[in-house]
Design brief:
249 residues; 33% helix; alpha/beta; two-stranded antiparallel ribbon; 7 helices; Rossmann fold
Length: 249
């Protein structure tokens, strides 16, 4: 049984019009990283749903037994929620949430009208990952990746530790979605920070090149780190996403 939800990490629903957006948070994070984006989109008249992925936003021990399928189920539950409320549905995500958003676009093409990826990975380039199978029997957690934010006034609410078992599941999800990219046909909007200390920026051009969408755009963020939805470029992300949704709804 999961622990109590941390104050501020609760899932959210903002009722609005018949066009809506599912906002999916990242690995070891929680809905708080997407809430400002949700509030902006709601102010623009959109319906917004921000689910909490299993094992997130409570205590790090709750992630020990997580599988990537658990996170997909959490995201699909959110998709079901917004599908009941809206005639037109978009999906956006940050970091692993972007990877999940791409997966939903692939597996639910009749529901998802367009997809927004914000600093999303489909591969990892950290050389330390090669040693993970060797140390995993002896080490349960390593320092977390939260709060990679350029704005010194902002701190992300995220786990301070990262379970190695869950990191292995994230890598499985990345491999799955990397193979799914050519099957994604919906319009796609891709954001990536020039300076991202968590996800290598080369992921974004790779997604742009390999996604099957006819309409696709990559926007580089010049003044943010990884958690871009809370950083200096957040207004650009919010405005461009709202514009993207209006254009394709």
């Amino acid at each position: 049984m999961e622990g109590a939800i941390l104050p501020g990490a609760e899932p959210f629903v903002f009722p609005g019009g018949e066009v809506g957006c599912l906002l999916v948070h990242g690995f070891t994070g929680n809905p708080s990283s997407m809430r400002p984006m949700g509030e902006y989109l709601a102010d623009q008249g959109f319906t917004v749903v921000g689910p909490r992925l299993k094992g997130h936003g409570t205590r790090v021990e709750d992630m020990f037994d997580n599988t990537y399928e658990d996170w997909i189920v959490s995201a699909e539950t959110g998709l079901d929620e917004i599908r009941r409320r809206c005639r037109t549905v978009f999906v956006a995500g940050l970091s692993m949430g972007a990877t999940l958003a791409l997966h939903l676009a692939c597996t639910h093409p009749d529901t998802v009208k367009g997809v927004v990826s914000i600093c999303g990975p489909v591969f990892m380039k950290d050389f330390r990952l090669f040693f993970m199978p060797l140390i995993r029997p002896f080490v349960k957690t390593i320092p977390g990746v939260g709060s990679d934010i350029k704005d010194p006034a902002v701190t992300e609410l995220a786990y301070e530790q990262m379970p190695l078992s869950a990191l292995g599941e994230l890598l499985k999800l990345c491999r799955l979605v990397k193979e799914e990219l050519p099957q994604i046909k919906q319009p796609a909007l891709i954001f990536e920070s020039r300076e991202d200390h968590v996800v290598h920026p080369s992921n974004a051009p790779y997604i742009l090149e390999h996604i099957g969408s006819a309409e696709k755009e990559l926007i580089w963020l010049e003044n943010s780190y990884h958690v871009a939805t809370l950083d200096f470029d957040k207004e650009l992300i919010f405005e461009k996403t709202a514009q993207f949704m209006r254009q394709h709804s």
